[in-house]
Amino acid sequence: MNKKQEIATVSRLNTKPRIIPRDQHTISRDLISENALKVLYRLKNAGYKSYLVGGGVRDILLGRQPKDFDVVTDAKPEQIRELFRHCRLIGRRFRLAHVHFRNEIIEVSTFRAPHHVSDEGEGHVQDGRIVRDNVYGDIDDDVWRRDFTVNALFYNIADFSVVDYVGGVNDLNERKLRLIGDPVQRYIEDPVRMLRAVRFASKLGLDIHADAVAPIPKYADMLENIPPARLFEEVLKLFMAGHAIKTFELLRQHRLFKYLFPQTDKLIDSEANNYSACFIKQALVNTDQRLAEGNTVSPGFLLAAFLWEPMRREAEEHMGHGLPEMEAIQLAGDAVISRQIASTSMPKRFSQMARDIWSLQVRLKKIAKRPFKVLSNNRFRAAYDFLLLRAQAGEQLSECIEYWTQQQLEESMPIINKPRSDTKQNRRRRRRPRDKD
Q1: Residue 217: phi, psi to the nearest 5?
Q2: Please, how many CA atoms are within 13 Å of residue 334, restricted to the half-sphere of its CB?
Q3: Shared-domain flag, residues 151 and 48
Q4: Are residues 24 and 151 in the same domain?
Q5: Looking at residue 337, which CATH number applies to its domain?
Q6: Domain final residue, candidates 174, 208, 226
Q7: What are the φ/ψ torsions at residue 171 (nearest 5 degrees)?
Q8: Of 99, 184, 330, 373, which is the most buried if we count CB atoms within 10 A?
Q9: 136 with 112: CB under 8 angstroms?
Q10: Are 135 and 97 in contact (CB under 8 A)?
Q11: Owning domain of residue 122
Q12: Which of 174, 208, 238 is the last residue before a domain boundary?
């Protein structure tokens, strides 16, 4: 352990938490899910320490409805599994217990300690990054392993108090998002924390503290070493939580968007008319609106929107060399998707949806001789919405939109059944019988 670690450890050991009693905070068991309370009480009754932690505590203190409830305890993963019949242990980097209920999963983790602390379990740091993190400790250790102060608040089921080691309650009151510990070290441990800072700032309406912002330009390129599959998970969290437009603006502001969609970011920077940024913003505004109304949004549609302009530019080059438009779009789509998954991988079902939406744009801009065939395509509705999106971003597509809107109206009209007397079968029955010899 080096001198810097020694100093940090001493200061942590001497830090006394602020204990906020029940009558001085707004957290009530009525605001916590019944299943989370079952987990908290079963751990407590079995003799283990048991706390609600993270977003559940933070959101209730902010007056928001928590999306999920996480529990932390001194019980080891295997001990947690012994207490709950419907429990699965998951993860290698972070060993977690998922307790399954009929309509909810409660995530339970064990207190973690710094990697230089000798304990059961295992931890592994590679080039400063935590690649395996199963070193167990107590609450006094665990709090310093969390990322932001607002996520490091503990609700103690034993006496209903809130335990605050790092000033998280004050930061919530001041609307600040602050990292725990040295920001440089925390970003090196896990570069995805830079994306998480943007996500929480957008979601919660907080300002990222200047100390957390300052290292980002120097260390952002560490995101290139994050597995593309993990970045895809972050993309879903960033853009499908109802705050996509604000998230996009912050990612662009801090020059982080290019690590998620490098082709699009480069194009936005080079454009004079700013069409790509306007198009994407309109797509994200629509996404936020759909989620606010309780509707679903497919990642495939968002992928089609993010990569539309890079694909279209490349398709135009192919058409300039004599390729038909449909073939050019298919060829360009394959190339753009292939480059994209090197940065942020996408499951095939989403990338294929993006390709289908792009290809259908060719068919939708023409007056179809057989519109029913286009209407019956299972991607038609997504492609039609994409056509509307293009019009909202400024393209002149009113004639196409009017035509396909009318076709949908006609298709949805009830079909009046012909009288039985006009059916082919009845016409046969009404034929005059042959004269018999």
Answers
A1: -60, -35
A2: 6
A3: yes
A4: yes
A5: 1.10.3090.10
A6: 174
A7: -65, -35
A8: 99
A9: yes
A10: no
A11: 15-174
A12: 174
pLDDT tens digits along 238-270: 999 999 999 999 999 999 999 999 999 999 998
CA-closest candidate to residue 238, choices 298, 290, 178, 198: 198
- The per-residue pLDDT for range 154-177, each reduced to its tens digit, is 999 999 999 999 999 999 999 999
Residue 68 annotated as catalytic: yes
> Helices marked H in 97-214 — which ranges?
139-145, 168-174, 183-189, 193-204, 210-213
- Are residues 136 and 33 part of one domain? yes
Write down the pLDDT at residue 122: 53
Structure tokens at 28: 């009530």
The reply to whether 164 and 277 lie within a common domain is no
Cα–Cα distance between 120 and 114 in angstroms, integer? 12
Counted domains in the chain:
2
Out of 70, 74, 133, 356, pick the active-site residue. Answer: 70
For residues 161 and 168, is the Cβ–Cβ distance under 8 A?
Answer: no
Beta bridge partners of 148: 179
Among candidate residues 68, 119, 182, 385, the one labeled active-site is 68
Same domain, 136 and 279: no
Host H or E run for residue 83: helix 77-83
Strands 207-208 and 50-53: unpaired
Judgement on whether residues 267 and 376 belong to the same structural domain of the protein: yes
Q: Is residue 86 part of a domain?
A: yes
pLDDT in tens, 4-51: 443 343 345 457 899 999 999 999 999 999 999 999 999 999 999 999
Q: What is the mean pLDDT of residues 354-379?
A: 88
- Does residue 8 fall inside a structural domain? no
Give Cβ neighbours of residue 15 (< 8 Å, ≥ 6 apart).
165
Helix (H), strand (E) counts: the chain: 22, 12
CB atoms closer than 10 angstroms to residue 98: 17
**Structural contact between residues 407 and 399, judged by C-beta atoms closer than 8 angstroms:** no
Q: What is the CATH number of the domain that holds 119?
A: 3.30.460.10
Residue type, 172: L
Catalytic site residue 70? yes
Same domain, 299 and 404: yes
Identify residue 116 by its one-letter amino acid code: H
Q: How distant, in Å, are the alpha carbons of 229, 233, 291, 297, 304 from that of 243?
A: 22, 16, 9, 13, 19
> Are 159 and 275 part of one and the same domain?
no
Task: Provide the residue type at 391 as one letter.
Answer: A
Which is catalytic among the residues 74, 133, 142, 147? 147
Q: Residue 231: helix, strand or coil by DSSP?
A: helix
Instruction: Confirm whether 240 is domain-assigned.
Output: no
Distance (Å, rounded) from C-alpha 359 to C-alpha 179?
A: 45
